[in-house]
Amino acid sequence: MLIKRAEAIKPSEITDKTLYLKRREFIHSTVGMFAAASLLFTVRSRAAKTGDGNRRSLDYVKKREYSSDEPQTPYPYVSGYNNFYEFATDKESPARLAASLTVAPWSVVVEGEVARPGTYTLEDILKNRQLEERIYRLRCVERWSMVIPWIGFSLADLIKRFEPTSRARYVEFTTLYRPAEMPGQRRSVLSWPYVEGLRMDEAMHPLTILATGLYGEVLPNQNGAPLRLVVPWKYGFKSIKSIVKIRFSEHQPRTTWNRAAPREYGFYANVNPDVDHPRWSQRRERRLGEFFKRKTLMFNGYAEEVAHLYKGMDLRKYF
Ligand SMILES: Nc1nc2c(c(=O)[nH]1)N[C@H]1C(S)=C(S)[C@@H](COP(=O)(O)O)O[C@H]1N2
Ligand SMILES: [Mo]
Predict the structure, then answer these.
(1) pTM of the model
(2) pLDDT tens-digit profile of 233-290?
(3) Alpha-carbon distance 205 to 202, whole Å?
(4) How far is the CA of 240 from the centre of ligand 1 (A)?
(5) Lowest CB count within 10 Å: 90, 200, 231, 281, which one?
(6) Which residues have CB under 8 Å from 208's CB, separation 6+?
(7) Ligand 2 centroid to 127 CA: how many Å?
(8) Closest ligand 1 atom, residue 257 Cα
(9) ω into residue 117 within 30 of 0, thus cis?
(10) Can you identify the CATH homologous superfamily of domain 17-310?
(11) What's the gap between Cα 274 and its chain centre?
């Protein structure tokens, strides 16, 4: 994510060199090839430095629920090129800085319009839940995308257990606030804690998952351990990481990016090639690991599954 509060952060802090290269020079594919190769190199060497010491396999995943024959993005990108502002505003540092985040024990507070509010431990949440592998695309506002074999479970399945009341029209998610372990939170780059939200029908959609892993392993901290949302038809910033609170409400939540820059980041944030970001087009994207840009697809390619949720809505207004 990029934000425009120039007085709060210097451009050099939010725009790393590879993205700078991308913006300027990717018009020429040869330069693009060079930049893509050097990005992979940077990402690989950073990964080697962090040692990926916490990698643990999740071998009890049984079911393959949603597959894709698209080539998967190489692991070093997925775990080495991250947006996680609680740690840093560049893409390479979260892998290193998140390594020491304490992710166990972990619990999630459930509150608002539900019959069963309370504090649920992660074990509680995972109990009896079938973990599945689902290969979904993640597409960022910054025009890059990845194909990731996530491991997780349907959010709807968990929500049903909390028994939302008939007044619950939205679900709000909150990320951990722990400045002692999350150095980015010591600066007011965003208003902490990070908050995201979905309309109830979006949250209950079978494509929406809570992820606990990727590539057959426990979720790396930089990807939002131990529990993060994945909403494949929306821009990446909706997929909130390291969730500690789930709140059900009648009113649309005030989400972090929307508050920071309402003209740039709407509540819905559906991937939409026809609605530009105010500062750039959203028509094309770079799949990390590939040389040539590709066309961005409506709803990130999931139109058949989700377009009905927005029937009759003006998607320029509700962007
Ligand atoms: N708490 C929190 N969640 C977050 C973010 C963040 O900064 N903080 N960044 C978002 C953005 S902009 C993107 S693109 C994705 C990146 O997920 P990844 O690092 O697993 O690829 O996480 C999203 N979730
Ligand atoms: Mo993003």
Answers:
(1) 0.87
(2) 999 999 999 999 999 999 999 999 999 999 999 999 999 999 999 999 999 999 999 9
(3) 5
(4) 6
(5) 281
(6) 154, 155, 156, 198, 202, 229, 230, 231
(7) 31
(8) 12
(9) no
(10) Oxidoreductase, molybdopterin-binding domain (3.90.420.10)
(11) 22
